[in-house]
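TICKET #2291
ISSUE: user wants both folds in one file
ATTACHMENT 1:
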Amino acid sequence: MPAPYMQNRELSWLRFNERVLAEAADESVPLLERLKFLSIFTSNLDEFFMIRVGSLFDLQSVNAEALDSKTGMTPKEQLDKLYASVHPLIKKRDEVYFTVEQRLRKEGIVNLSTAELCIEEFRFVKQYYEQEIAPILSPQIVDSHHPFPHLQSKVLHIGAVLKEEEKTLFGVIPIPASLPDIIQIPGTGVRYVRVEDIILDHVEQVFSMYRIAEKTVFCITRNADIHPDDEAFDVNQDFRSKMQKLLQERRRLAAVRLELNSPVTAEFENYLCETLELKPEQVFVSRAPLKLSYAFSLPIPDGAENLCYKPFSPCRTPGVSYDGLFRQIAKQDILLSYPFESMTPFLRLIKEAAVDKNVISIKITIYRLARKAKLVDYLCRAAENGKDVTVFIELRARFDEQNNIDWSERLEDAGCRIIYGFEEYKIHSKVCLITRKEKSSIRYYTQIGTGNYNERTAAQYTDVS
């Protein structure tokens, strides 16, 4: 019998994300930071649907009568409550977004619609479209000879209802990943147009043989809850190949959400729902942009530094030199507190170990790495210098699987010994062990931390090392 004071895990998570949205609505937060909180709220919700909602879909298909131990709800009852809880959050996000956007306009950061462009700006955008966008578009018409295409998860698409005499067709344009999210307009201030708006404005040109009855920007979210241990693989297949195969399968899992950037007719919505096998409650209409990640790359106009938090850089650890770290650690332990102190001493230790003739081996566990990782450079250098380098790299770090696969290949090419992990276990520890010969004995230098060996997040997240 569920206890009355317990709450459903998924609904509790939505309340957490609501607190992120509250940061975006907070008037005391600088404007650009509020836009970033909106982006974080949005990406959090994306992952929630891919994993939490995706897992409930899986559970419903396997055991529809399974009960949540906290609330006694079935998977369907949980899903119904989740959908009902998300719709108000989307409405609130739209309200906060347009409030922030109007305030940013007064500060010289303007998200322009194509209708707001002056003649010179219109010519610039038109030329950009013709030279940079149109050549790489891949529009497709769905008819009896062309089935509905596979739509990638979390990729923006332009959808259009096409009319040809008495015939009604559907046209779709995937927005290429190689395009930037926004196109900045030359001139004073920060004026930009979102790339999906530019393409949407040219739908009539793309499908010039048809009359456009309606059009919108849309995006689907697919279930991404993959479990390596649930799949059967050849006994001779290595774990890296196994994960690569699973990542390919993830791209084709069932859709769990449809987002529309504007309301559409019931016929248009029903067509998409039937094709994607979605229910009406899985459709979410948002007037705010469906992708807000561009918030982190918007430039700050001159004299408008008050729009962001003051820049923060980790400080050097008092009493710790970046040279001769083995000598310093031999005298006493060193504690680093991220993000207030820099990760540099640890990185310099690995760099020093890579060229130290007395170092015998380096062993390290890796869960997440930055896209550009000095740590990998130093580990590769150590292996190339004849050190015994063993790297345990967790390929099941969610949404970093491909990044870790890529790093594992580079480390292996440099001569590092790579270990991928154990079945039914995900290794989340952050430990590094350096073995060094000193005079007539062997000495071990050990680093233990709470945070990933990620040079970017070490300057953002609170951890100790």
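ATTACHMENT 2:
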Amino acid sequence: MTKDELWQAVLGEIEISLSKASFTTWFKNTTVLDLMEKEIIIGVPNIFSKEWLEKKYQKIILDSVRKYYPKINRVSCVIGNKNNHQSQVKLEVKKIDSIVNNVFNKEKNNSQYSNNISSINPNFDSNLNPKYRFENYIVGSNNDLAYAACRSVAENPGKNYNPLFIYGGVGLGKTHLLQSVGNFAVKNNPSIRVRYISMERFANEFLDSVQTSKIKEFKNKYIQLDILIVDDVQFLSGKEKTQEEFFHIFESLYQHGKQIILSSDRPPKSIPTLEDRLRSRFEGGMMADINKPDLETRIIIIKRKLEEKSFSLSDDIIEYLANNIYHNIRELEGALNKIIATYQLRNTIPTLKDVIRETEDLVSSNRRQDLSPEKIIGAVADFFNVKSEEITGRCRNKKIIRPRQVAIFLLRNEINLSFPEIGNLIGGRDHSTAIYACEKITLELKTNKVLSNHIKFIREKFIDY
């Protein structure tokens, strides 16, 4: 068996055990550079792939290789391909490692970093907040793929994943991650042109340019960029003219090899009234989701924030907060900030009983004891970009049918309303209408993955209402 045949066999086994996104991200551009008696050397495209494979996938690679070569007990990764001489590759790795270590020197404090960012390209409006950095982003199983993709893009803008589409619920760290890419890129290359903007602000700027007859200036401001970072692209929904203009800007940047990074609270296929040409382009690069942090990650987040604030809490308090505030990171930070501010002013140390009292409303909300029909209907209306009154009214417009059916399904399954109650709530309809809608959605969920994703994201929105 040749080296190439071995590696193809190993890749075949690894592909079965990983998601398609993870396999493509980490193993697509790898090769075997050398196969020795007890060591296999894998060629990888960049420093981050090297670090990630060695730290996260070392065991799975070794287990697969040993099925064919039992004596192998070591896997090494180096940057390069078959055309590189091994010694040259190792020398290059050392150089790059040195650069990366300098970039990520954790001895630098926040004020120094902020000063460095603010002094770079001062005449260019990047909208980046220097507090958002890779170094202070907590990585867990809920966000490791998104983090890895962002790091890779930051190191090689326009080359690895373009566009990069990050999606996940509110308050899970998408903005932090996106702006970290921009700050890293600017720090590495002071002349690079980066702009971070929310889609809502982009749309407002576009409308202003139309009203003031400055559309050309507006477009030129964006097509000159090297990296465009757009947050909350779900706000493109229903904005036909803005979608058209954004499409042309997207195309111009993409065709010139410029990096585009997008975020949303849902995947492209779940953004209602999004043009097919935009949807296909959003899905044409790398997509990575961010989920709710698990308990271990929440505990790490709390401890990191306490360290930053030079404040301490007992382990039982930390565990209580991590166990009871779990919907998103923003809520967790908000609760911590409230506790810290309150007890710093009082100059006392909070007890568990104090913390339970201070966070009672938030914890109750997390347990969804106050989930109401209005909240469910509001979340559905927001997701489908319609009005709550349209769902509960007598309107028979085609665009209202699906949102209404989903609302009926959730009213039944989330708060167990009776069918007559649901019918009365949804425009005074007969209970048989509610039964039909509920059964229809239940049946579709067995085969319709798009609908399943819709329901999932709507449920995550309940906490916002």
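RESOLUTION: both attachments delivered.
EXTRA DETAIL ON ATTACHMENT 2: The longest helix spans residues 86-103.
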